[in-house]
Design goal:
about 325 residues; alpha+beta; Arc Repressor Mutant, subunit A; eight-stranded mixed β-sheet; 13 helices; globular
């Protein structure tokens, strides 16, 4: 059995269900402008969004999930808020209790647990952390496949069980890819390396959630709890581009999406995404996507946010 939710009126997605229903997966597949709901700390959840943004409050942070990102919530309390001028597509998957451990138990290797020099991770549970992930070729196709079948009204518990198992496998692949990127950081202890990756992830969450504001290197370094010098050096080791380039790529991708999907003028889009001038937008579009605003407006597909690292995933 699987609980498919087409609308929410507030509260925990799985609160108030009877014992049998609460033991199943819950998938909220929403087409809405307004929604408020929470996700309990007893389940693994994944949050994704298209044509709009879901605002998620987790660990005392405000994180925005949009077309460029998806968010994993590894058994942490979170609240979700949607306030959009147009209907957006919001997808939240809450796995049934125990299922992620069942699926990944035989897949997680000692290398996934082992840090380095004989150290073992203190948390023997799931390896995921509550940070935004950029779309890639591993997890994203599975999310979109599940969303498409929800849209069609498919009601086949076995099919969803299989797809969610596959999704967990792809999420583990993504996690391993992130750990491989962290090996670019020149430190001896893996525990230190993972802490650096965590802090850089805080900064990328901040960039994806605050790109429309004036952001300086100091602001991004502060989000990572690092000095400017160390933040710049470590960010380049992990993402292979500077924080400013990452920010400009994010702004450019959102601008391209607005050009493609709305009637907003270029000047208005420049202000919405945080660029300082039309010429900055034009240069960034050419650099990151190889197109002009006019070509973008008439393109068949919207350019995707893609870092060098996520392109390889």
């Amino acid at each position: 059995m699987i609980l498919r939710i087409q609308e929410v009126v507030g509260g925990d997605l799985t609160a108030g269900l009877d014992g049998a229903a609460r033991a199943q997966h819950a998938i909220a597949n929403l087409r809405t402008q307004v929604a408020d709901y929470s996700i309990g700390a007893d389940r693994l959840a994944v949050v994704a969004a298209w044509q709009g943004r879901q605002e998620v409050n987790v660990d005392g942070r405000r994180v925005l999930v949009d077309d460029d990102t998806w968010l994993v919530l590894p058994k942490v309390q979170a609240s979700v808020r949607i306030r959009e001028p147009r209907p957006m597509h919001a997808l939240t998957i809450v796995f049934r209790p125990g299922m992620p451990e069942e699926v990944l138990g035989s897949l997680i290797t000692p290398e996934d647990r082992l840090l380095e020099d004989g150290e073992v991770a203190s948390n023997p549970g799931l390896p995921f952390v509550p940070h935004l992930q950029t779309h890639d070729r591993s997890v994203t196709p599975v999310l979109m496949f599940i969303r498409r079948h929800c849209d069609m009204g498919l009601d086949d518990p076995l099919w969803y069980e299989e797809q969610l198992s596959f999704l967990l496998e792809r999420m583990l692949m993504r996690h391993r890819h992130l750990m491989a990127r962290a090996r670019n950081v020149p430190v001896r202890r893996a525990a230190t390396r993972r802490e650096i990756l965590r802090r850089i992830s805080l900064a990328t969450d901040f960039i994806h959630s605050s790109y429309d504001r004036p952001l300086m290197l100091t602001d991004m370094a502060r989000a990572a709890f690092l000095s400017r010098h160390h933040f710049l050096r470590l960010f380049k080791h992990i993402h292979e581009i500077t924080p400013h380039e990452y920010l400009q790529r994010k702004r450019t991708t959102v601008a391209a999406r607005l050009l493609r999907s709305t009637a907003l003028g270029v000047e208005e889009i420049v202000k919405v995404v945080g660029f300082d001038s039309r010429s900055t937008l034009f240069r960034a579009l050419r650099r990151f996507h190889g197109i002009t605003p006019r070509e973008c407006r008439h393109a068949l597909d919207t350019p995707a946010f893609m870092t060098a690292a996520s392109a390889q995933a």
